[in-house]
Amino acid sequence: MTRTPAFPTVSPPQPEKRPVFDLHHGVTRTDDYAWLRANNWQEMFRDPSLLDAQIRAHLEAENAYQAALMADTAQVRKQLFKEMKGRIKEDDSSVPMKDGRYAYGSSFKLGGEQPRYFRTPREGGDQEILLDGDLEAEGKAYFRLGGVDHSTDHRKLLWAFDDKGSEFYTLRVRDLADGNDLADRIPDTGGGGVWDAGNDGFFYTRLDPNHRPSKVLFHALGDSPENDRLIYEETDPGFFMNVGGTRSNEWIMVGINDHETSEYRIMSASEPFAEPKLVAPRETGLQYDLEEGGDVFFILTNADGAKDFKIMTAPASDPVRANWQELVPHEAGRLILSVIGFKDHMVRLERKEGLPRIVVHDRNSGEEHLISFDEEAFSLGLSGSYEYDTEIMRFSYSSMTTPAQVFDYNMRTRERVLLKTQEVPSGHDPDHYVTRRLMAPAADGELVPISLIHHRDTPLDGSAPCLLYGYGSYGITVPAAFNTNLLSLVDRGFVYAIAHVRGGKDKGYGWYDDGKRAHKMNTFTDFIAAAHHLVAERYTQHDRIVAQGGSAGGLLMGAVANMAPECFGGIVAEVPFVDVLTTMLDATLPLTPPEWPEWGNPIASEEDYRTIAAYSPYDNVAALDYPPILALAGLTDPRVTYWEPAKWVARLRDRKIGDNPVLFNINMDSGHAGASGRFSRLEEIAFTYAFALKVAGKADLATTAPPILLDSQTAL
After folding, report:
1. What is the pLDDT of residues 657-695, one digit of tens each?
2. pTM of the full predicted structure?
3. Positions of the region Disordered (predicted)?
4. Of 19, 93, 147, 505, which has the fewest beta carbons less than 10 angstroms from its beta carbon?
């Protein structure tokens, strides 16, 4: 590395080595730190106090070590938190959405960490608080609300909460007449439910001991959960399952899917004791989603080679595949993302040439029109409607410089009504910032999109530090959306950039296919190519780039750290999926079987084993001069278990050369999403930003715009 930031000389924790060996496909691996995985992890996720004392002592020592190394950033962290909190409207409220005689929304009170759910009369009036998240969270170290759904008769509220961070949600039912919860209490659910047509009960998913939604059940209000009727049980652990309804309240839909195959079963919402009917049996590689359309279902599918998806219809009375008829044909390069049906219209969200767009289809005339936008790069979201028989639908818009806006749109008259613009109480002037979209050449000739934002006064001579974010898995596209938090870095002279690497769907479904399984290396080399391009275009220098990614994006961080440590001045890996091979070899873990279509099955396939082994960060740690690395995790995380980053950090310290430190910050009271409160979450973001400032040589900057720019070689 050309520049080493100043960290105090403190000895890091040195966990004992207890070698464990495994043999697969003739390959023997040694894992010195496997003991950091709690043998009782299923029980510990429900009750963290059951964590083995030796493991707890090690994790607490890690927290003490990172606290010592980051102690000199205490002031800048306070300043960052103050700035980010100052950009949040503390008593913010959503625009209520109409449903029958009411309009429903959510809000925060001044100083509140959790949302409140409310309703008003349909045309406006006094708010009635239905559920106060802050009140429910009192006395709990962790609390997160799940789904909140009012009954169609507006008399009851079905709501869910998780108070461990392990994503085992408990369902409750609130009587809206008196505000009290009924006796019904159902633990270990997926976090939501769907009312039947008579509002006499609801459908929900039950999680098994390995945290998989294996059963859909119906609960009749007032009955014991032990008597809940089994609607469907999925016996293949490789499939996820969910249950949903339609806005017309006519249908209950059980969705079953992995990352490349889907299947639906449907039943009438008015017949909760009927057997669900199969729409189209699962066929490897066939994906389809159902959306209501009155006497038809709209079907979004990749059937018949429609790689970027097409829309078909089928009679609601018999929607089997033989009855599917094409409505919107497949168009290569135009990826259809989602569909919402209304009585007289159908709306689709699609992505073309890297940008999202909304298309409105008139069901009577067949005419279509686009909702247009002016900026070079932006983010769109469909909020839809509670109501099916309406001409009004809702969408959101933002860009990296434009605060989020919420619109109601009349699909018949094409009138667009701005309902709300995100307020930034401390002030925001879009003219102070520049946003760009670049194309970085990859080694194989592909062009990797980069969305970026910087302050207009930031010199583009290579001296600016850069936070480069990436994800690149599961087809997830990182939107070029407005984010008030990142302004704290941009106002200090940072360039903030998003590398839209393969593994997402930024350039169509093929962009996803080219970044998974046998092609996974493209995700990592694309990110490295983006870093090289930012340097070539004089936005920054390699030793001033701080790379950031979380979850599968944390895998990206671990891989590029091994492949090109010289390209980065620092790396932030949040809840990082860094022990990929070990996890994919363990079929008992919550997400392993459903993840095999994404990563490959190294148990059954030697080719998959060797593919994953070639990039799995934990397996490829070597005697390299790594940049400073910060790993973050949550103790009760069921998605990326805490022991993955704990082991990775231990191996990095054992094998690396050079003096750059590896820090591990584990939240002992949270899971995958980090702290649950909106302000406590800001404290975690302030910590990661302080690390980025520190390794970039700017941790002493406690002021905001206009940015104070330091010479590129300034040290702490």
Report:
1. 999 999 999 999 877 666 667 888 899 999 999 999 999
2. 0.91
3. 1-21
4. 19
Contacts for 579 with CB less than 8 Å, ≥ 6 apart: 616, 617, 618, 643, 644, 647, 648
Same domain, residue pair 597 and 652: yes
Instruction: Kindly state whether residues 522 and 603 are assigned to the same domain.
Output: yes
C-alpha closest to that of 333 among 511, 533, 588, 462: 511
C-beta of residue 419 within 8 angstroms of C-beta of residue 407: yes
**Both tokens assigned to 194:** 């769907």
For the segment 128-176, what is each residue's pLDDT rounded down to a tens digit? 999 999 999 999 988 999 999 999 999 999 999 999 888 899 999 999 9
Q: Domain range holding 229?
A: 106-286
**CA dist list (Å): 431 to 395, 401, 435, 455, 707:** 25, 8, 10, 9, 14
Total count of domains within the chain: 2
How many CB atoms within 10 Å of residue 217?
22
Terminal-to-terminal C-alpha distance of the chain: 16
Integer Cα distance of 182 and 427 in angstroms: 45
What are the residue numbers of the active site?
551, 637, 672
Pairing status of strand 102-107 against strand 296-301 = unpaired
Give the H/E segment covering residue 106. Answer: strand 102-107
| Number of helical (H) and strand (E) elements in the chain, helices listed first | 13, 37
Check if the beta carbon of residue 579 is closer than 8 Å to that of residue 648: yes
Q: If we measure between CA atoms, which residue out of 589, 561, 390 comes closest to residue 470?
A: 561
- Angle between helices 678-695 and 74-86 in degrees, nearest 10: 130
549 and 629 both lie in a single domain: yes
pLDDT tens profile 302-351: 999 999 999 999 999 999 999 999 999 999 999 999 999 999 999 999 99
The mean per-residue pLDDT over the stretch 89-114 comes to 94
